[in-house]
């Protein structure tokens, strides 16, 4: 039996969040702009110690099942952010534009909490849309779109472009 203050054995692993460890070490090296041995050791130490200290606040580790899909997802999101910036800039700067703001309910097939959070974050990072509510009970995200003439088409687009890949990555 596990006490309330003692983490279960699976959480006591010294490398509980390997992707976070790699990310922290990489960010450290990028910030230091050096591959000197002392910086490599500091990055390794930083990447091992910090996730161990905060693992109780992070929840279970996230497993990426398909790295190729994760890379595809990252490129797709970056591309969509660039394109959406141009679309929103044209919409805002055009004197005759007539945007149609709308609320869109996006039904979710995702089960993994990290995947849902990532989808909501991507929607918000993409100019012109904001995730306002992630309703886990109704299994939907309420999205506000700056210019949306067809709410169902936008919901289908979000599901086809992002949710499909997230299902392959996380579930």
Describe this structure in words.
This protein is mainly alpha-helical. The protein contains five helices and three strands; from the N terminus they run αααβαββα. A three-stranded antiparallel sheet has the order 1-3-2, with helices on one face. The two termini are 30 Å apart.
Task: Describe the secondary-structure layout.
Layout: H1 18-32, H2 37-58, H3 67-93, E1 102-107, H4 113-125, E2 129-135, E3 140-145, H5 151-170
Helix pairs in contact: 1-2, 3-5, 4-5
Main sheet specs:
3 strands, antiparallel
Q: Taking strands numbered 1, 2, ... along the chain, how are they ordered across the largest sheet?
A: 1-3-2
How far apart the termini lie comes to 30 Å
Tell me, briefly, the overall form.
globular
Class by helix and strand content? Answer: mainly alpha
The residue ranges in which pLDDT falls below 50 over 5 or more consecutive positions are: 1-11
By DSSP, the count of extended strands is: 3
- Give the proportion of residues in helices: 55-70%
Radius of gyration: 20 Å
How many helical stretches?
5
Mean pLDDT, nearest integer?
Answer: 88
Strand percentage, roughly? Answer: 5-15%
H/E series: HHHEHEEH
Organism: Caldimonas aquatica
Main location: membrane
InterPro entries: Cation_antiport_E (IPR002758)
Membrane topology: Multi-pass membrane protein
List keywords for this structure.
about 170 residues; mainly alpha; 3-stranded antiparallel beta sheet; 5 helices; about 55% helix; disordered N terminus
Quick overview of this protein structure:
The protein is mainly alpha-helical and 171 residues long. It is 57% helix and 11% strand. The longest helix has 27 residues, at 67-93.
């Amino acid at each position: 039996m596990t006490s309330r203050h003692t983490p279960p054995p699976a959480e006591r692993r010294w490398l509980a969040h390997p992707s976070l460890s790699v990310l922290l070490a990489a960010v450290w090296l990028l910030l230091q702009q050096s591959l000197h041995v002392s910086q490599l050791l500091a990055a390794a130490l930083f990447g091992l110690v910090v996730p161990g200290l905060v693992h109780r606040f992070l929840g279970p580790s996230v497993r990426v099942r398909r790295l190729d899909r994760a890379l595809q997802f990252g490129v797709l999101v970056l591309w969509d952010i660039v394109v959406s910036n141009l679309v929103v800039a044209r919409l805002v700067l055009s004197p005759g534009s007539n945007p149609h703001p709308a609320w869109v309910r996006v039904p979710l097939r995702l089960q993994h909490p990290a995947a849902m959070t990532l989808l909501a974050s991507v929607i918000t990072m993409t100019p012109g849309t904001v995730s306002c509510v992630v309703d886990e009970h109704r299994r939907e995200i309420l999205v506000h779109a700056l210019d949306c003439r067809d709410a169902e088409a936008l919901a289908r687009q979000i599901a086809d472009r992002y949710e499909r890949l997230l299902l392959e990555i996380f579930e």
